[in-house]
Every structure is written in C-alpha cells, then in structure tokens.
Amino acid sequence: MVPDDERPYAVLDIDATLSDTSKRVHFLDRKPKDWDSFFAQAKDDAVLDEGLAVATTLGENHEIVYLTGRPEKLRRDTLKWLKDNGFPEGTLYMRRNTDRRPGAQMKIDRLRKLSDDKPVAVLVDDDIKVCAVAEKAGYTVMRADWGLDPETQPTLFEAQEKEGRT
C-alpha cells in the first residue's frame, strides 16, 4: 500500500455511479420538477455494486474524493449513506446550494483545484459530458456505465447540464 501522503486522488461521482437513482428520478419528469422530493429520497438509494467494487479497489492505493452535484444541504445524509453502505473514507465535495453551473463545469473546476495539490489518477463518473470535458483536459476517466438506465438518463443529463442541479 502507498503511504497516505503519496497516494494520488481517485475522484468518484455519487448519483448513478455509486448510488441507484432510478427510484427517485421520476420527480424530475414533472413540470415543475420536484427537486425537494428528488433530493429528500437520496438517502434511500440502493448501492450500485459495481460502483462499490470500484471505490473499494481504488481506495487501496488512492486518496478517495467524492465529487457530487448534490447540493451542500445533503451533506449529512450523503456522508451517512456512504458510511452505512461501506464506501471507503474520503473527502466529499458538493455543490453550493445556489450553484447552478453545468455539472461538467462544476466538476472540471474542482478537478483543477485538486490537481494543484496532487495528481488526480482517475475520475469515475456516469455523465458523458463530464467525462468528455475531463478527458479533454487531460484527466484519466473511467465511465461508470453500470448505473445507467436508458429511460432515465436524458432526465439526469438535463438536470446536470441544463439546470445545474445534480
């Protein structure tokens, strides 16, 4: 195992990468979208087994960073969910409650800040746009395609990129 201070970052998204959002995405199909209900149920998401396996493996030789578009007001529930479901310890970066930047912009900004501290070895994310922007910026990306539901992906993509909400 690599000493803690020498371990590069492994950056992991949460929604649709580690957690199964399929039971709550229907709140975003409504007009107007029911963001309060969507976020209130995040604490009840099932674990995506592949996401847990990737996080656990990366945690052996990397410093884990969780980078999510979830708003800061969900910090307590998100930390509890990660701990209760056996995810490795890590630093959690969340969106400010009023931050509505596209997910790709919010995440690439954080990756750049992290890179000022030490290398980012890999970003694990389900969002195609986030992955493309990160790869273009020179980051190694693992596309989390194990949590995608073709029926819900357009709704999540819109929420991440057009509304800056998750």
UniProtKB/TrEMBL annotation:
Organism annotation: Kribbella antibiotica
InterPro entries associated with the record: HAD-like_sf (IPR036412), HAD_PNKP (IPR056782), HAD_sf (IPR023214)
Name this polypeptide is given: Polynucleotide kinase PNKP phosphatase domain-containing protein
Residues in Polynucleotide kinase PNKP phosphatase domain copies: 11-145
Residue intervals passing through the bilayer: none
